[in-house]
Amino acid sequence: MNKNKKNATDATSIFGSQWLVGNSQHPLTINVQSPKSGLRSSRFDPMKTDVVMPEMLASVVPPSETFNPSTDSLHAAMRPIIMLAQCFSMLPVCGVNKPDASYLRFTWRSPKILYTAIVILTVFVMSVGNVLRLLTTGINSVKMTTFVFYATAVVTAVMFVRLAMQWPCLALTWEKLEREFTSRHRRISKTTLATRFKIVTTVVMLFALVEHTAAVASAYISAVECAEYRGETDIVGTYFQTQFPQVFTKMSYSLWKGIMVDTINILSTFSWNFVDLFLILISIALTDQFKSLNSRLYSIRGKAMPEWWWAEARNDYNHLATLTRRVDSYISSIVLLSFATDLYFICIQLLFSFNPIRGIVRKIYFCFSFGFLLARTTAVSLYAASVHDESRLPAPILYSVAGSSYNNEVSRFLTQVTTDTISLTGMKFFSVTRSLVLTVAGTIVTYELVLVQFNSVQQVDQANITNACESYPFD
Protein backbone atom coordinates (compact mmCIF):
# COMPACT_ATOMS: atom_id res chain seq x y z
CA MET A 1 0.00 0.00 0.00
CA ASN A 2 2.89 2.37 0.73
CA LYS A 3 4.32 1.61 -2.71
CA ASN A 4 1.01 2.49 -4.39
CA LYS A 5 0.80 5.71 -2.42
CA LYS A 6 4.33 6.64 -3.48
CA ASN A 7 3.52 6.00 -7.15
CA ALA A 8 0.44 8.21 -6.95
CA THR A 9 2.48 10.99 -5.34
CA ASP A 10 5.14 10.76 -8.06
CA ALA A 11 2.52 10.91 -10.81
CA THR A 12 0.95 13.99 -9.27
CA SER A 13 4.30 15.75 -9.00
CA ILE A 14 5.21 14.91 -12.60
CA PHE A 15 2.00 15.89 -14.33
CA GLY A 16 0.96 18.66 -11.92
CA SER A 17 -2.59 19.87 -12.27
CA GLN A 18 -3.31 17.66 -15.30
CA TRP A 19 -4.51 15.08 -12.76
CA LEU A 20 -6.34 17.61 -10.60
CA VAL A 21 -8.68 19.36 -13.05
CA GLY A 22 -12.27 18.67 -12.20
CA ASN A 23 -14.85 19.28 -9.57
CA SER A 24 -13.48 21.48 -6.81
CA GLN A 25 -15.24 19.27 -4.27
CA HIS A 26 -13.43 16.19 -5.61
CA PRO A 27 -10.00 17.48 -6.54
CA LEU A 28 -8.69 14.06 -7.57
CA THR A 29 -11.37 13.52 -10.20
CA ILE A 30 -9.65 12.89 -13.55
CA ASN A 31 -11.34 14.72 -16.43
CA VAL A 32 -8.64 14.31 -19.07
CA GLN A 33 -7.05 11.27 -20.66
CA SER A 34 -4.41 9.63 -18.52
CA PRO A 35 -0.92 10.76 -19.44
CA LYS A 36 0.35 7.20 -19.18
CA SER A 37 -2.20 5.92 -21.68
CA GLY A 38 -1.28 8.81 -23.95
CA LEU A 39 2.39 7.93 -23.70
CA ARG A 40 1.73 4.32 -24.66
CA SER A 41 -0.25 5.37 -27.74
CA SER A 42 2.33 7.97 -28.89
CA ARG A 43 5.31 6.96 -31.00
CA PHE A 44 8.64 8.26 -29.72
CA ASP A 45 12.07 7.99 -31.30
CA PRO A 46 14.58 7.72 -28.44
CA MET A 47 17.32 9.04 -30.72
CA LYS A 48 15.62 12.43 -31.20
CA THR A 49 16.71 15.23 -28.91
CA ASP A 50 13.38 17.12 -29.16
CA VAL A 51 11.32 14.40 -27.52
CA VAL A 52 9.52 15.62 -24.41
CA MET A 53 9.59 12.97 -21.73
CA PRO A 54 7.12 12.97 -18.78
CA GLU A 55 9.59 14.52 -16.37
CA MET A 56 9.97 17.51 -18.77
CA LEU A 57 6.27 18.34 -19.06
CA ALA A 58 6.04 20.21 -15.77
CA SER A 59 8.49 22.84 -17.02
CA VAL A 60 6.77 23.43 -20.39
CA VAL A 61 3.65 25.19 -19.12
CA PRO A 62 3.86 25.68 -15.35
CA PRO A 63 0.60 26.61 -13.67
CA SER A 64 -0.15 30.10 -12.42
CA GLU A 65 -0.73 31.17 -8.88
CA THR A 66 -4.18 30.78 -7.40
CA PHE A 67 -6.84 32.48 -9.51
CA ASN A 68 -8.33 35.51 -7.77
CA PRO A 69 -11.57 36.65 -9.47
CA SER A 70 -11.50 40.00 -7.70
CA THR A 71 -8.29 40.96 -9.53
CA ASP A 72 -7.62 38.50 -12.38
CA SER A 73 -10.99 38.08 -14.12
CA LEU A 74 -12.78 39.90 -16.91
CA HIS A 75 -15.30 40.99 -14.29
CA ALA A 76 -12.57 42.73 -12.32
CA ALA A 77 -11.17 44.37 -15.45
CA MET A 78 -14.57 45.60 -16.62
CA ARG A 79 -15.70 46.80 -13.18
CA PRO A 80 -14.47 50.44 -13.42
CA ILE A 81 -15.51 50.69 -17.08
CA ILE A 82 -19.06 49.50 -16.37
CA MET A 83 -19.31 51.84 -13.38
CA LEU A 84 -18.25 54.72 -15.62
CA ALA A 85 -20.78 53.66 -18.25
CA GLN A 86 -23.56 53.52 -15.69
CA CYS A 87 -22.92 57.17 -14.81
CA PHE A 88 -24.04 57.84 -18.38
CA SER A 89 -26.98 55.37 -18.26
CA MET A 90 -25.22 52.50 -20.07
CA LEU A 91 -25.17 48.80 -19.05
CA PRO A 92 -27.56 48.95 -16.06
CA VAL A 93 -26.47 45.69 -14.40
CA CYS A 94 -26.37 45.24 -10.62
CA GLY A 95 -23.58 43.75 -8.49
CA VAL A 96 -20.74 45.27 -10.51
CA ASN A 97 -18.76 46.26 -7.40
CA LYS A 98 -18.83 42.73 -5.95
CA PRO A 99 -15.71 40.51 -5.86
CA ASP A 100 -16.73 38.05 -8.58
CA ALA A 101 -19.22 37.55 -11.40
CA SER A 102 -21.57 35.32 -9.40
CA TYR A 103 -23.01 38.45 -7.75
CA LEU A 104 -24.00 40.05 -11.05
CA ARG A 105 -27.70 40.24 -11.82
CA PHE A 106 -30.13 42.17 -13.93
CA THR A 107 -33.43 43.39 -12.55
CA TRP A 108 -36.05 45.73 -13.89
CA ARG A 109 -36.66 47.05 -10.37
CA SER A 110 -33.56 49.13 -9.84
CA PRO A 111 -32.69 52.84 -9.88
CA LYS A 112 -30.23 52.16 -12.69
CA ILE A 113 -33.01 50.95 -14.95
CA LEU A 114 -35.14 53.96 -14.04
CA TYR A 115 -32.26 56.30 -14.87
CA THR A 116 -31.64 54.51 -18.17
CA ALA A 117 -35.34 54.63 -19.08
CA ILE A 118 -35.50 58.38 -18.44
CA VAL A 119 -32.45 59.00 -20.62
CA ILE A 120 -33.80 56.81 -23.43
CA LEU A 121 -37.11 58.66 -23.30
CA THR A 122 -35.51 62.11 -23.44
CA VAL A 123 -33.17 61.16 -26.29
CA PHE A 124 -36.15 59.67 -28.12
CA VAL A 125 -37.97 62.98 -27.74
CA MET A 126 -34.94 64.72 -29.25
CA SER A 127 -35.07 62.29 -32.17
CA VAL A 128 -38.78 62.99 -32.71
CA GLY A 129 -38.00 66.71 -32.67
CA ASN A 130 -35.47 66.15 -35.43
CA VAL A 131 -38.01 64.20 -37.49
CA LEU A 132 -40.55 67.03 -37.17
CA ARG A 133 -37.88 69.53 -38.19
CA LEU A 134 -37.05 67.44 -41.27
CA LEU A 135 -40.72 67.26 -42.23
CA THR A 136 -41.38 70.98 -41.77
CA THR A 137 -38.19 72.55 -43.11
CA GLY A 138 -36.98 69.98 -45.63
CA ILE A 139 -34.24 67.38 -45.69
CA ASN A 140 -30.58 68.14 -46.11
CA SER A 141 -27.33 66.54 -44.98
CA VAL A 142 -26.98 68.81 -41.93
CA LYS A 143 -30.40 68.05 -40.45
CA MET A 144 -30.15 64.40 -41.40
CA THR A 145 -26.84 64.06 -39.58
CA THR A 146 -28.33 65.47 -36.38
CA PHE A 147 -31.22 63.04 -36.64
CA VAL A 148 -28.89 60.06 -37.20
CA PHE A 149 -26.81 61.09 -34.17
CA TYR A 150 -29.76 61.06 -31.73
CA ALA A 151 -31.43 58.04 -33.32
CA THR A 152 -28.17 56.14 -32.92
CA ALA A 153 -28.06 57.14 -29.25
CA VAL A 154 -31.54 55.68 -28.70
CA VAL A 155 -30.70 52.42 -30.47
CA THR A 156 -27.39 52.16 -28.58
CA ALA A 157 -29.08 52.58 -25.21
CA VAL A 158 -31.64 49.89 -26.02
CA MET A 159 -28.91 47.49 -27.21
CA PHE A 160 -26.92 47.91 -24.01
CA VAL A 161 -30.02 47.28 -21.90
CA ARG A 162 -30.43 44.05 -23.84
CA LEU A 163 -26.76 43.23 -23.27
CA ALA A 164 -27.13 43.99 -19.55
CA MET A 165 -29.79 41.29 -19.36
CA GLN A 166 -27.27 38.73 -20.69
CA TRP A 167 -24.11 40.11 -19.09
CA PRO A 168 -24.30 38.21 -15.74
CA CYS A 169 -24.44 34.84 -17.53
CA LEU A 170 -21.67 35.80 -19.97
CA ALA A 171 -19.36 37.15 -17.25
CA LEU A 172 -19.87 34.05 -15.10
CA THR A 173 -19.13 31.70 -18.02
CA TRP A 174 -16.01 33.68 -18.87
CA GLU A 175 -14.84 33.62 -15.25
CA LYS A 176 -15.22 29.83 -15.03
CA LEU A 177 -13.10 29.44 -18.17
CA GLU A 178 -10.46 31.80 -16.76
CA ARG A 179 -10.39 29.86 -13.51
CA GLU A 180 -9.85 26.56 -15.32
CA PHE A 181 -7.11 27.91 -17.60
CA THR A 182 -5.28 29.69 -14.79
CA SER A 183 -5.28 26.57 -12.61
CA ARG A 184 -3.42 24.64 -15.31
CA HIS A 185 -1.31 27.17 -17.17
CA ARG A 186 0.82 30.23 -16.57
CA ARG A 187 -0.45 33.68 -17.56
CA ILE A 188 1.82 35.18 -20.21
CA SER A 189 0.91 38.85 -20.04
CA LYS A 190 3.23 41.10 -18.04
CA THR A 191 0.42 43.57 -17.38
CA THR A 192 -2.99 42.59 -16.07
CA LEU A 193 -6.10 42.85 -18.19
CA ALA A 194 -7.48 45.47 -15.81
CA THR A 195 -4.41 47.68 -16.31
CA ARG A 196 -4.68 47.51 -20.09
CA PHE A 197 -8.39 48.25 -19.92
CA LYS A 198 -7.74 51.34 -17.81
CA ILE A 199 -5.05 52.59 -20.20
CA VAL A 200 -7.25 52.17 -23.29
CA THR A 201 -10.30 53.68 -21.59
CA THR A 202 -8.31 56.67 -20.34
CA VAL A 203 -6.91 57.37 -23.81
CA VAL A 204 -10.23 57.04 -25.63
CA MET A 205 -12.23 59.04 -23.08
CA LEU A 206 -9.57 61.75 -22.87
CA PHE A 207 -9.63 62.24 -26.64
CA ALA A 208 -13.44 62.20 -26.58
CA LEU A 209 -13.44 64.88 -23.89
CA VAL A 210 -11.03 67.05 -25.89
CA GLU A 211 -13.19 66.63 -28.98
CA HIS A 212 -16.36 67.60 -27.16
CA THR A 213 -14.66 70.59 -25.53
CA ALA A 214 -13.48 71.76 -28.95
CA ALA A 215 -17.02 71.30 -30.29
CA VAL A 216 -18.43 73.49 -27.51
CA ALA A 217 -15.77 76.14 -28.14
CA SER A 218 -16.51 76.14 -31.87
CA ALA A 219 -20.26 76.38 -31.24
CA TYR A 220 -19.76 79.19 -28.73
CA ILE A 221 -17.79 81.20 -31.30
CA SER A 222 -20.66 80.73 -33.73
CA ALA A 223 -23.09 81.89 -31.04
CA VAL A 224 -21.05 85.04 -30.44
CA GLU A 225 -21.08 85.85 -34.14
CA CYS A 226 -24.80 85.12 -34.37
CA ALA A 227 -25.57 87.31 -31.33
CA GLU A 228 -23.61 90.20 -32.86
CA TYR A 229 -25.38 89.77 -36.19
CA ARG A 230 -28.80 89.76 -34.49
CA GLY A 231 -27.91 92.48 -32.00
CA GLU A 232 -28.56 90.24 -28.99
CA THR A 233 -26.73 90.24 -25.69
CA ASP A 234 -27.64 86.78 -24.34
CA ILE A 235 -24.84 84.74 -25.89
CA VAL A 236 -25.61 81.63 -23.81
CA GLY A 237 -29.23 81.70 -24.92
CA THR A 238 -28.14 82.16 -28.53
CA TYR A 239 -25.78 79.18 -28.13
CA PHE A 240 -28.53 76.84 -26.93
CA GLN A 241 -31.05 78.01 -29.50
CA THR A 242 -28.69 77.69 -32.45
CA GLN A 243 -27.34 74.32 -31.33
CA PHE A 244 -30.73 72.74 -30.61
CA PRO A 245 -33.22 74.30 -33.06
CA GLN A 246 -35.26 71.05 -33.10
CA VAL A 247 -36.22 71.84 -29.49
CA PHE A 248 -36.40 75.61 -29.21
CA THR A 249 -38.34 76.19 -32.41
CA LYS A 250 -41.15 74.15 -30.83
CA MET A 251 -40.98 75.58 -27.30
CA SER A 252 -39.87 78.74 -25.57
CA TYR A 253 -36.27 78.98 -24.39
CA SER A 254 -35.17 79.19 -20.78
CA LEU A 255 -31.79 78.51 -19.21
CA TRP A 256 -32.81 75.34 -17.36
CA LYS A 257 -34.23 73.88 -20.55
CA GLY A 258 -30.99 74.67 -22.35
CA ILE A 259 -28.93 72.98 -19.65
CA MET A 260 -31.18 69.90 -19.70
CA VAL A 261 -30.99 69.56 -23.49
CA ASP A 262 -27.23 70.02 -23.42
CA THR A 263 -27.00 67.28 -20.78
CA ILE A 264 -28.88 64.95 -23.11
CA ASN A 265 -26.43 65.85 -25.84
CA ILE A 266 -23.48 64.98 -23.57
CA LEU A 267 -25.03 61.59 -22.71
CA SER A 268 -25.59 60.87 -26.40
CA THR A 269 -22.01 61.84 -27.22
CA PHE A 270 -20.68 59.49 -24.52
CA SER A 271 -22.79 56.58 -25.82
CA TRP A 272 -21.44 57.14 -29.33
CA ASN A 273 -17.84 56.89 -28.07
CA PHE A 274 -18.56 54.10 -25.60
CA VAL A 275 -19.78 51.72 -28.32
CA ASP A 276 -16.35 51.69 -29.96
CA LEU A 277 -14.55 51.58 -26.61
CA PHE A 278 -16.59 48.58 -25.46
CA LEU A 279 -15.85 46.63 -28.65
CA ILE A 280 -12.13 47.37 -28.31
CA LEU A 281 -12.07 46.11 -24.72
CA ILE A 282 -13.99 42.91 -25.46
CA SER A 283 -11.70 42.23 -28.42
CA ILE A 284 -8.62 42.70 -26.22
CA ALA A 285 -10.00 40.23 -23.67
CA LEU A 286 -10.79 37.57 -26.28
CA THR A 287 -7.45 38.03 -28.01
CA ASP A 288 -5.67 37.68 -24.67
CA GLN A 289 -7.17 34.22 -24.17
CA PHE A 290 -6.09 33.05 -27.63
CA LYS A 291 -2.60 34.50 -27.08
CA SER A 292 -2.25 32.46 -23.90
CA LEU A 293 -3.08 29.25 -25.80
CA ASN A 294 -0.78 30.17 -28.69
CA SER A 295 2.06 30.83 -26.24
CA ARG A 296 1.74 27.28 -24.92
CA LEU A 297 1.77 25.92 -28.47
CA TYR A 298 4.84 27.91 -29.48
CA SER A 299 6.66 26.80 -26.32
CA ILE A 300 6.59 23.17 -27.53
CA ARG A 301 7.35 23.89 -31.19
CA GLY A 302 9.69 21.23 -32.56
CA LYS A 303 9.01 18.90 -29.64
CA ALA A 304 7.11 15.61 -29.75
CA MET A 305 4.19 15.83 -27.36
CA PRO A 306 1.96 12.93 -26.23
CA GLU A 307 -1.53 12.59 -27.61
CA TRP A 308 -3.22 13.54 -24.34
CA TRP A 309 -1.38 16.91 -24.44
CA TRP A 310 -2.77 17.69 -27.90
CA ALA A 311 -6.23 16.56 -26.79
CA GLU A 312 -6.13 19.07 -23.95
CA ALA A 313 -4.87 21.87 -26.21
CA ARG A 314 -7.56 21.16 -28.77
CA ASN A 315 -10.20 21.10 -26.04
CA ASP A 316 -9.01 24.52 -24.79
CA TYR A 317 -9.14 25.91 -28.32
CA ASN A 318 -12.66 24.57 -28.72
CA HIS A 319 -13.70 26.26 -25.45
CA LEU A 320 -12.35 29.58 -26.74
CA ALA A 321 -14.14 29.14 -30.07
CA THR A 322 -17.39 28.49 -28.21
CA LEU A 323 -16.83 31.53 -25.98
CA THR A 324 -16.18 33.74 -29.03
CA ARG A 325 -19.39 32.61 -30.69
CA ARG A 326 -21.33 33.24 -27.51
CA VAL A 327 -19.89 36.73 -27.16
CA ASP A 328 -20.64 37.40 -30.81
CA SER A 329 -24.26 36.34 -30.38
CA TYR A 330 -24.61 39.01 -27.69
CA ILE A 331 -22.71 41.91 -29.29
CA SER A 332 -23.02 41.33 -33.07
CA SER A 333 -25.78 43.95 -33.32
CA ILE A 334 -23.51 46.44 -31.51
CA VAL A 335 -20.70 45.63 -33.97
CA LEU A 336 -23.02 46.32 -36.90
CA LEU A 337 -24.22 49.59 -35.36
CA SER A 338 -20.64 50.71 -34.70
CA PHE A 339 -19.44 50.12 -38.24
CA ALA A 340 -22.58 51.60 -39.81
CA THR A 341 -22.52 54.82 -37.80
CA ASP A 342 -18.74 55.30 -38.07
CA LEU A 343 -18.94 54.79 -41.82
CA TYR A 344 -21.78 57.30 -42.09
CA PHE A 345 -20.08 59.99 -40.03
CA ILE A 346 -16.76 59.57 -41.86
CA CYS A 347 -18.56 60.13 -45.16
CA ILE A 348 -20.44 63.13 -43.78
CA GLN A 349 -17.32 64.73 -42.35
CA LEU A 350 -15.56 64.25 -45.67
CA LEU A 351 -18.54 65.87 -47.38
CA PHE A 352 -18.46 68.91 -45.07
CA SER A 353 -14.70 69.21 -45.59
CA PHE A 354 -15.49 70.61 -49.06
CA ASN A 355 -17.14 73.61 -47.38
CA PRO A 356 -15.02 76.64 -46.49
CA ILE A 357 -14.44 76.63 -42.71
CA ARG A 358 -14.03 80.00 -41.06
CA GLY A 359 -11.85 80.54 -38.01
CA ILE A 360 -8.78 78.74 -36.71
CA VAL A 361 -10.72 77.14 -33.80
CA ARG A 362 -13.26 75.58 -36.17
CA LYS A 363 -10.49 74.27 -38.44
CA ILE A 364 -8.62 72.74 -35.50
CA TYR A 365 -11.82 71.17 -34.19
CA PHE A 366 -12.78 69.75 -37.56
CA CYS A 367 -9.35 68.22 -38.17
CA PHE A 368 -9.15 66.78 -34.64
CA SER A 369 -12.71 65.40 -34.77
CA PHE A 370 -12.17 63.79 -38.16
CA GLY A 371 -8.80 62.34 -37.14
CA PHE A 372 -10.22 60.96 -33.88
CA LEU A 373 -13.12 59.36 -35.75
CA LEU A 374 -10.77 57.71 -38.25
CA ALA A 375 -8.46 56.50 -35.46
CA ARG A 376 -11.36 55.12 -33.43
CA THR A 377 -12.84 53.28 -36.40
CA THR A 378 -9.44 51.84 -37.33
CA ALA A 379 -8.82 50.77 -33.74
CA VAL A 380 -12.16 48.94 -33.55
CA SER A 381 -11.45 47.20 -36.85
CA LEU A 382 -7.91 46.10 -35.95
CA TYR A 383 -8.62 45.05 -32.37
CA ALA A 384 -11.70 43.08 -33.41
CA ALA A 385 -9.77 41.54 -36.32
CA SER A 386 -7.03 40.43 -33.93
CA VAL A 387 -9.45 37.82 -32.52
CA HIS A 388 -9.58 36.16 -35.94
CA ASP A 389 -5.82 36.58 -36.44
CA GLU A 390 -4.94 34.88 -33.15
CA SER A 391 -7.39 32.04 -33.80
CA ARG A 392 -5.43 31.16 -36.96
CA LEU A 393 -1.96 31.16 -35.40
CA PRO A 394 -2.00 27.53 -34.16
CA ALA A 395 -1.97 26.33 -37.79
CA PRO A 396 1.82 26.78 -38.40
CA ILE A 397 2.58 24.90 -35.18
CA LEU A 398 0.32 22.03 -36.16
CA TYR A 399 1.79 21.89 -39.66
CA SER A 400 5.28 21.55 -38.16
CA VAL A 401 4.44 18.57 -35.93
CA ALA A 402 6.87 15.75 -36.71
CA GLY A 403 5.52 12.58 -38.27
CA SER A 404 6.65 10.52 -35.30
CA SER A 405 4.27 12.40 -33.00
CA TYR A 406 1.46 13.14 -35.46
CA ASN A 407 -1.79 11.62 -34.22
CA ASN A 408 -5.56 11.91 -34.48
CA GLU A 409 -5.74 14.79 -31.98
CA VAL A 410 -3.28 16.86 -34.01
CA SER A 411 -5.26 16.10 -37.16
CA ARG A 412 -8.56 17.11 -35.54
CA PHE A 413 -6.97 20.25 -34.11
CA LEU A 414 -5.54 21.27 -37.49
CA THR A 415 -8.86 20.67 -39.24
CA GLN A 416 -10.70 22.88 -36.79
CA VAL A 417 -8.16 25.71 -37.01
CA THR A 418 -8.07 25.77 -40.81
CA THR A 419 -11.78 25.30 -41.51
CA ASP A 420 -13.52 27.07 -38.63
CA THR A 421 -13.92 30.85 -38.92
CA ILE A 422 -13.65 32.34 -35.44
CA SER A 423 -14.30 36.07 -35.41
CA LEU A 424 -16.68 38.78 -34.31
CA THR A 425 -19.39 39.59 -36.84
CA GLY A 426 -21.92 42.26 -37.65
CA MET A 427 -25.04 40.15 -37.18
CA LYS A 428 -23.47 37.58 -39.56
CA PHE A 429 -23.52 40.10 -42.43
CA PHE A 430 -19.73 40.34 -42.29
CA SER A 431 -16.85 39.00 -40.25
CA VAL A 432 -14.43 41.46 -38.73
CA THR A 433 -11.10 40.45 -40.24
CA ARG A 434 -8.06 42.44 -41.30
CA SER A 435 -9.27 42.56 -44.91
CA LEU A 436 -12.43 44.34 -43.74
CA VAL A 437 -10.40 47.53 -43.18
CA LEU A 438 -9.66 47.78 -46.91
CA THR A 439 -13.28 46.97 -47.71
CA VAL A 440 -14.50 49.78 -45.46
CA ALA A 441 -11.99 52.19 -47.04
CA GLY A 442 -13.25 51.33 -50.51
CA THR A 443 -16.84 51.74 -49.38
CA ILE A 444 -16.07 55.20 -47.99
CA VAL A 445 -14.61 56.31 -51.31
CA THR A 446 -17.62 54.97 -53.23
CA TYR A 447 -20.25 56.57 -51.01
CA GLU A 448 -18.31 59.82 -50.82
CA LEU A 449 -18.45 60.21 -54.60
CA VAL A 450 -22.21 59.63 -54.50
CA LEU A 451 -22.70 62.12 -51.65
CA VAL A 452 -20.68 64.79 -53.42
CA GLN A 453 -22.85 64.47 -56.52
CA PHE A 454 -26.18 64.54 -54.68
CA ASN A 455 -25.26 67.26 -52.19
CA SER A 456 -23.47 69.72 -54.45
CA VAL A 457 -26.50 72.02 -54.35
CA GLN A 458 -26.38 72.00 -50.52
CA GLN A 459 -22.82 73.26 -50.18
CA VAL A 460 -22.94 76.30 -47.91
CA ASP A 461 -20.33 79.01 -47.68
CA GLN A 462 -19.77 79.20 -43.93
CA ALA A 463 -17.56 82.24 -44.41
CA ASN A 464 -20.74 84.21 -45.01
CA ILE A 465 -21.78 85.88 -41.74
CA THR A 466 -25.46 85.46 -42.60
CA ASN A 467 -25.01 81.72 -42.09
CA ALA A 468 -23.49 82.12 -38.63
CA CYS A 469 -26.83 81.38 -36.95
CA GLU A 470 -27.20 78.04 -38.74
CA SER A 471 -26.17 75.00 -36.71
CA TYR A 472 -23.73 72.59 -38.33
CA PRO A 473 -22.79 69.18 -36.95
CA PHE A 474 -19.08 69.98 -37.22
CA ASP A 475 -19.15 73.75 -36.89
From TrEMBL:
The keyword ATP-binding does not apply. Pfam families: Trehalose_recp. This is Gustatory receptor for sugar taste 64f-like isoform X1. It is a multi-pass membrane protein. Belongs to the insect chemoreceptor superfamily. Gustatory receptor (GR) family. Gr5a subfamily. It is found in: Cell membrane. One of its GO terms (molecular function) is sweet taste receptor activity. Its main location: membrane. InterPro entries: Gustatory_rcpt. The chain crosses the membrane at residues 113-135, 147-165, 264-286, 330-352, 364-385. One of its GO terms (cellular component) is plasma membrane. Coiled coil: none annotated. Keywords: Cell membrane, Membrane, Receptor, Transmembrane, Transmembrane helix. The lineage of its organism: Eukaryota, Metazoa, Ecdysozoa, Arthropoda, Hexapoda. It comes from Pogonomyrmex barbatus (red harvester ant).
